[in-house]
Each structure stands twice: as structure tokens, then as C-alpha cells.
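SEQUENCE-TO-STRUCTURE ENTRY
===========================
What this section holds: a protein sequence and its matching fold, both as plain text.
Question of interest: how does this chain fold, as expressed in C-alpha cells?
***
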Amino acid sequence: MHNRFIVLALSVGLFIWGVFSIQKNPIDAIPDLSENQVIVFTEWMGRSPQLIEDQVTYPLVTNLQGIPKIKYVRGSSMFGMSFIYVIFEDDVDVYWARERVMERINTISQNLPEGVAPQLGPDGTGVGHILWYTLDAPGMDLGEQRAIQDWYVKFALQNVPGVSEIASFGGFQKQYQISIDPNKLLYYKLSIPQVIAAVRSNNNESGGRKFEMSGIGYIIKTSGYLKSQEEIANIPVKNQNGTPIRISDLATVQMTGETRLGIFDQDGEGERAGGIVVMRYGENAAEVIDRVKAKMKEVSKGLPEGVKFDIVYDRGELIKESIDSIKHTLIEEMIVVSLIVLVFLFHWRSALSIIIQIPITIAASFILLNAFDISSNIMSLTGIALAIGVIVDNGIIMSENAYKHLAERYELWESDQNKKTTS
């Protein structure tokens, strides 16, 4: 009461700071309650889960346990794949944790089987799937759809700030397949490793050297990358009595799709290819979705005629609906509480002092949300909505206390006036 200007100035400053905090606070539909983890993925195709467990998962788990600030390490083995989940303390920076895991992987990779290369998973969280899309391409082959997704769309969207990974799904991944006839293999007295070695050695490019002739420098190199089925079919595997034994003598070469374990069917209208946008750790989901959609408009200009994006899951809509619902609830509560305070106190100055506390307190709460890295989501905003009653109770109690003291002083003043009148 004796420093009204200072109190009002501090309140205005706190309110302005809170408004800026609201604009900077990350927005999401649901809170990220996932653990602070780093995923190590290892692929060793064709091996049984037990072999994966013994040769890959167990060595990785035992060696990764020595990293500082780790809570525990989990391992999972399946056919051809191994997953290691390294769980760190909650206050550990995720990128510091990824560096420590990568350092340890580099030291233990030499103890793993030949050809096994562990790699880190994306720097996303369990709730990082913010957008799913498919390619609406009527009449286009599924292999062509997947090729557009893998070699054009994926690389373009992965450059969007805040995107950790674009995970492709659906369609066929094109590949050359060599179907070997075992009878011909036996007839020519060859083995499958010999065929693999022949294909591998012919699908390579080697460099020579530079030499000068007549004052001109020449660079010698060989270009041996395979570009067609015919080139693969004509690869020599062995020479018998001056006659080359080619791949075409042993097998059938064809362009086909990689073996799939499932399909992606949309609305029962047929298969499609598409991708999943995985958000980077700690990013603002609403802003990342907006940036991805803007990039999609740019990418659409380079798609073949008739091909367009079809968004099948958009967390941005859920975020918008959730935040709007909570905002309306907050506004309704503020109006109802203000009316109740006016009716019960029946004194506009007292009611105004209580009502002003609501927006100031709500704005200031976002300062603390930013300080503790808490996003605006259903849980945090609902907590603020539930706390409005407590905010108002404080103001009402202070007003009632002021009324009580004023009434006591008024009685004393009134009694003094009566005494003076009598005397």
C-alpha cells in the first residue's frame, strides 16, 4: 500500500515477461514422458535370435554399461536384428549421451563379427512421430512410388530444421536379384561364394594414376559400376577351357522388389508408399509441423504429374484442437470467476484487484514452464486451469482481511465521533 507504483511496475513487468514466455513456450498435444535414452541398432541379416544375442547383443550390453551417468541398459534380440536401449539420467544432455555411446561403440566394434556395424538410432523420442504422409500417385507402380519417396522426398524433408528422420514405408524397394540354379552350379563345379565374389569385384571402380604425354596430363581409372541387368548377366565367374562361365549360365537376373514382411493399405483402396516425420528431441512440435508442410509445398513442384502428398496423420490438428479447448476453458473460468467475485463482494474496485491477478499469474506461470522445459500441453494447461480457483481464493482472502480491518477501524472512528458529539 505504501509502494503502489513499485508494486504495479513489477506486476506489469512480470506480465510482459510472461507474455513473451507464452510465445516461446513449445506447444504439443501430449507431454513427453519418455526416458532419456539412446538406441543402438545392429543388423546382421539371416542370423537367428540366439546367435544375435550371443554375438552382438550381449557384447554390446556388457561394454556399454561402463558409460557415466547411465541408469541401466536394456537389450533385445530378434531375427537378424539387435536393439540396445541405453537409459541415462534425466538431467543428462541427449547429445552428450549420444557422443559417449558412439565413442564406446567405436572401441568394441572390432570384437563383433565381420560385417556387423552398430549404428545409433535417430535423436527423437517415443512421441516424436508428428506427421505421416503417403504419395497419392494413381496408376504409378509401387516401386516407382518408393523410389520417389527414398531418393527425392526423403532427402528434401530431412533438411527441415527440427526433423530427426524421415522413415519410409510401403511400396517396393527396387533391387537386382540373381536367382541361382543349384543344378547348373553343381554342373560347372562352382559355389555361391564364388558367384558373390565375382559380382562384388565387378561392381566397383578403381583408380589408376596420372601420366603425362605430349605435354598433356591423363588420369587413368576404371568405371565398373553395374547399371543394368545385362551387365550383371554378362559377368564372368570362371574360365573353363577358354570358355567364360557367366552369371547368365548359372542364374536368372531380374529387377524386382525386396522381400517384404507387410504392406501399407490406405482406406482399403490399395497400397501406397509414404513416410513418417520424426521430430528431433526438445523441438517445438507445432513449429516443426508447419515447417514440414511448407517444405512439402515446395517439394510438390518437383513431383511427377498427378503425384501429390496425402497427409494421413497430423499431430498439428490434435495440438490445435487441444490448445483451443484449454484456452476456451481458461477464458470461461476467468469470466465465471470474475462474475462470482463481483456478485459476492459487490464492490468493483475489490473485484478488479482480484480479477487482475488471474492473467498476471497465468502469464507468470509460463516463465516457470520454460525454466523447467515443460511444454504447453493438455496436462500443463489443465493444471493451470485447475489452479485458477487457488489464485482467486488468495485474492478473496486478502480482500476479506482488508474489509475486516477497515470495519474495525470504522467502528472505532464511529465511536470516537459519537463521544465527541455527546461531549
User: Anything to note?
Assistant: The CA atoms of residues 183 and 250 lie 9 Å apart.
